[in-house]
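pls read this protein.

:::
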Amino acid sequence: MPESYPTELRGMGTSWCQAIGRFGGALGPIMLGAIVDAVMQSGATPTFAMGTSFISLTVFAIIAALAIAIFIKNDRAGKDLEG
């Protein structure tokens, strides 16, 4: 990950990447439970609630895929790490 950032931003960029990943790892299960609970409160069956929750989470997966595609466009692989 460090080689993805210019030298002057390397420490901060890597730290923010780690922090956001940890935050997402903690928030994901909480959001899944909240979505399932909200669907169950509307009177849906547990099977429908789980299916709906996973379908709704694909929105976040698409956002993540777009962010990765943008980040890869600015990839610094093969470039001098000092520049």
In short: The radius of gyration is 18 Å. The longest helix spans residues 10-41. The mean pLDDT is 83. The helical segments are 10-41, 46-73.
